[in-house]
Amino acid sequence: MAKEKDRKITIQPLGDRVLVQREDADVKSPAGIIIPDTAQKEKSKQGVVIAAGPGKYGDEGDLIPMTVKAGQKVFFNSGWDNEIKIEGDDAEYFLVHESDILAVIK
């Protein structure tokens, strides 16, 4: 996998959409055994914000800016319909609305 600073993402989300790269979380059993991703029932919904759109327009026509920024770790709702592939990159990316981001991990 390419280093984060070497990666060149050519996708700029529009509106209130956010490009998130899914991050594998290490899952351990109570005995300390690491459970591989292939054995887990559901993939992690944790990732890193790669890019964010400018925000969305409110009812009065004013721009409501985004609250998340590139580089932040987040928990997000993902679905089969918002997963995208970036040519030449094996990582898993999701294009979600800002409202699909549940929390920022500090």
Structure description:
The chain is mainly β and about 110 residues long. It has one domain: GroES chaperonin (10 Kd Chaperonin, Protein Cpn10, Chain O), CATH 2.30.33. Helix content is about 0%, strand content about 35%. The chain is built from no helices and ten strands. The strands form three sheets. The chain has a six-stranded antiparallel beta sheet with strand order 8-9-1-4-7-10, with no helix packed on it.
Could you name the key traits of this structure?
single chain, 106 residues, mainly beta, 10 Kd Chaperonin, Protein Cpn10, Chain O, six-stranded antiparallel sheet, two-stranded antiparallel sheet, 0% helix, 37% strand, disordered N terminus
Strand and helix map with partners:
Blueprint lengths: L16 E6 L4 E2 L5 E2 L10 E7 L2 E3 L5 E3 L7 E4 L6 E2 L8 E5 L3 E5 L1
How is the quaternary structure best described? single chain
Radius of gyration: 15 Å
Count of distinct structural domains: 1
* Class per helix and strand makeup: mainly beta
Low-confidence stretches: 1-5
**CATH homology superfamily name:** GroES chaperonin
**How is the CATH topology named?**
10 Kd Chaperonin, Protein Cpn10, Chain O
> Can you tell me the CATH class?
Mainly Beta
The description of the largest β-sheet is: 6 strands, antiparallel
Shape: globular
Query: Numbering strands along the chain, what is their spatial order in the largest sheet?
Result: 8-9-1-4-7-10
Order of helices and strands: EEEEEEEEEE
In terms of DSSP E residues, the strand content is 35-45%
Helix content: under 10%
CATH architecture designation: Roll
Q: What is the count of helical runs?
A: 0
Distance between the termini: 24 Å
pLDDT averaged residue by residue: 81
Number of DSSP-assigned strands: 10
